[in-house]
Structure formats: structure tokens, C-alpha cells
């Protein structure tokens, strides 16, 4: 299932990815630090929601209370919870 997330408090404006069960694929960030966010997308390809949360949740960007990586971890959990709530 394709999922679109609109992050808050960061430079990226949108995060797109596919979720199959609890596996994440095809991550694309719109806006933000292009090279770093492409790298995150490649590194998390094929990881599970739990693995992504473990690695990225709570990462901060400068003085901000979040980061693009943290917002992505939030996004994958939200996608997983929504897809499993729908049955």
C-alpha cells in the first residue's frame, strides 16, 4: 500500500513510501536535505517498522524537537497502525 505523510516542524514537506505488512519500501522525501534524505531512503529499504523506529525515532535536527528521520519513524508507525486497523 502506498502511504503519504506530511511531516511537521522539519524542512521536508512530504514523505512517500510503500508498506507491505510491516516492511517499508520505495521511500521518497520531498524537500529537505536532498542527499541525506535519499541516503535514509536507501538505508531503510526493506526494513520493518520496528527496525526503523529503533534507529530513527528521537533523532533531532539542531534545536528542533524533531527531524526528518524522526518524522519518518512517526510516519511508518502511523501507516502500519492505519493499515492494520483497517483489516
Compact summary:
This protein has 87 residues and is α+β, with helices and mostly antiparallel strands.
Lay out the secondary structure.
Elements: E1 2-5, E2 12-20, E3 23-31, H1 34-44, H2 49-56, H3 68-85
Antiparallel strand pairs: 1-2, 2-3
Helix pairs in contact: 2-3
Task: Give a written overview of the molecule.
The chain has a 3-stranded antiparallel beta sheet with strand order 1-2-3. It is built from 3 helices and 3 strands. The chain is 43% helix and 25% strand. Helix 2 packs antiparallel against helix 3. The radius of gyration is 12 Å and the shape is globular. It has one domain. With 87 residues, the protein is an alpha+beta fold. The model has no long low-confidence stretch (mean pLDDT 96).
